[in-house]
Amino acid sequence: MAKFSKKGDKTPPAMSTASLPDIVFMILFFFMVSTTMRQTDKLVNIRMPEASEVAKLERKDLAAYIYIGTPILSKQTQYGTDARIQLNDSFKTVDDIRDFIAAEREALSEADRQFMTVSIKADENVRMGIITDIKQELRRTSALKIMYNARKSE
Amino acid sequence: MARPTPEVNAGSMADIAFLLLIFFLMVTTMDTETGLQRRLPPMPDQNQKQEDVKINKRNILVVRLNDYDALFAGNEIMDVSQLKNKAIEFLTNPGNADNLPERESKTIEGFGNYPVSKGVISLQNTRGTSYKAYISVQNELVRAVNDIRDDFARQNFGKAYASLDEEKQAIVRDAIPQNISEAEPKDTKK
Q: What is the arithmetic mean of pLDDT over A31-58?
């Protein structure tokens, strides 16, 4: 009798999962390289304006962030819907910027201080009045390098 | 006699990797930092008497934005889309017109003499201007400067500005400076 293997009653071989860790590690490394650690929790809604000529911020570690926008829904009962300034994790006023910049500057090494950039992240519907106040305060504290954050448009 | 070491079970490797992956997904953000970089003018010294910097009228292009985001550049009301051409015309002064900025021959290291435009664009806004309009105007002005730089780079180095090396970019930057001044805020309640 000729031998024929009976295909029907054999269970299919288990799929090898030996390469699964490799795949997951690959994804892991991708995320580790392409993302940054989250610094603060946002308390304001920000939809950045669009601009076509944006440049990338080279040294993210030297940036200090100022957020300006309307408070998020859960904070609106307390802070209203007017545009507010957020520094670190709380709502602040223009007068607090001086201390904030001083603290940020202190945290950097001596050589890097002159390269500190203040990144202004403002909602596109914010009025310029509040931004002008911030700019004047930054000039007073001589933090002159600033960046207006904007989304890249095509 | 070397005994073969028993193989380490790598079955849980995937679990560990997943754990790390999920951790990184939670705590990191992906947003890239892009924007328009600017340098603010230093605060004038209060003890020092404010001396008027004499800038010839032809060398300055005043761009104004009002509370209703209406744009006024030079002496006319215009749309944001027209601003770029206006700025390019102002900065290059192709016909050597009398009412457009003069050029001053400067020696640029590594390049030679080049007539550098003395034009300054002064951007003024009111407190009620929206940030969106302000950024779009800033963007148009930067675009105008970038266009002129690109032209200059193509003419002299045969390549776009972005693909030049650091040294040549510096030459282009010297030849075509980005003179956008953010004016002192003015009281607009009048």
A: 82
Give me the amino acid identity at B188: T
- Chain B CB contacts of A140 under 8 Å are 43
Nearest to B28 by CA among A112, A140, A154, A29: A29
pLDDT digits (tens, 9 = 90+) for B12-66: 888 888 898 888 888 887 766 788 888 888 777 666 655 556 667 778 888 888 8
Q: For residue A129, list chain B residues with Cβ-Cβ distance below 8 A.
A: 127-128
- For residue A135, list chain B residues with Cβ-Cβ distance below 8 A: 40, 182
Residue of B nearest to A20 (CA): B14
B35/A117 touch (CB, cutoff 8 Å), yes or no: no
Contacts of A67 (CB under 8 A, 6+ apart): A40, A42, A43, A44, A46, A85, A86, A87, A121, A122
pLDDT, residue B164, reads 84
What is the reported pLDDT for B190? Answer: 36
3-class SS of residue A44: strand
Dist. CA B147–CA B164, nearest whole Å: 15
- ipTM of the predicted structure? 0.76
Among the partner-chain residues A34, A57, A60, the one whose CB lies closest to the CB of B30 is A34
Beta carbons of A57 and B38 less than 8 Å apart: no
Nearest to A83 by CA among A135, A41, A44, A140: A44
**Which residue in B35, B65, B132 is closest to A54 by CB distance?**
B35
Q: DSSP labels for chain B?
A: -PPPPPPPP-TTHHHHHHHHHHHHHHHEE----EEEEEEPPPPPPSSS--PPP---GGGEEEEEE-TT--EEETTEEE-HHHHHHHHHHHHH-TT--TTS--EEEEEETTTEEEEEE--EEEEEE-TT-BHHHHHHHHHHHHHHHHHHHHHHHHHHHSS-GGGS-HHHHHHHHHHS---EEEPPP-----
pTM more than 0.95 = no
